[in-house]
Amino acid sequence: MLLQVEQVGVACHTGARSCFYRSVDLGDDSLNYRREVIHEVYRSILDRKENPKDGSYTNYLFDEGVDKILKKIGEESSEIIIGAKNDDHENIAMETADLVYHILVLLAEKNMPIERVKEVLTERMKEK
Question: Hey, what's the torsion of the CAs at 5, 6, 8, 14, to 10 degrees?
Fold first, then answer.
C-alpha cells in the first residue's frame, strides 16, 4: 500500500516543520563545506552517541535501537519515492537529506565508519 500524505503540523521535536531547519554560516568556504557536510553530520551523530543530550532526536533513535532506525530509513525512502513520482524536486532533496541522516545514524549504531562506505564506492568506480 502506498499513501500520499500532506504534512500537517510539525515533524521535529523542536516544533519546527523539519529537523533540518538551522542555517549554517558557511562564510567564504561554502563549496568546501558542502563537500564535507556529510562528514560533519556523521561526526555530530557520533558525538551525540558518546555524549547523550536530553531531548536529542539522535539520542532518541539510539535509545530505541536498530528497529526504529530501520523504520525511519524505510519511511524516508517511501517519501523519496512519492516525491519522485510527483516530480517534486524540493521534496526529493529534503527527503534524501532525511534518508542520508538516518543512514548515518545506522552506521554509527553499527560502529561502521563512513570511510568504509567510501571504500566500497571507490572500488565500484574502479570496476567501471
Answer: 80
Residue 31 in grid coordinates: 563549496
Q: In sequence order, which residues have a C-beta less than 8 Å from that of residue 7 and are 6 or more positions away? A: 17
One DSSP character per residue, 23-75 reads ----TT-HHHHHHHHHHHHHHHHHHHHHS--TT-HHHHHHHH-HHHHHHHHHH
CA end-to-end distance (rounded Å), the chain:
37
Give residue-wise pLDDT tens across range 7-65: 776 666 666 667 666 665 656 566 566 778 999 999 999 999 999 999 999 999 999 99
**Side-chain half-sphere CA neighbours of 49 within 13 A:** 18
Could you tell me the domains of the chain? 30-127 (1.10.287.1080)
Give the DSSP per-residue string, 109-126. Answer: HTT--HHHHHHHHHHHHH
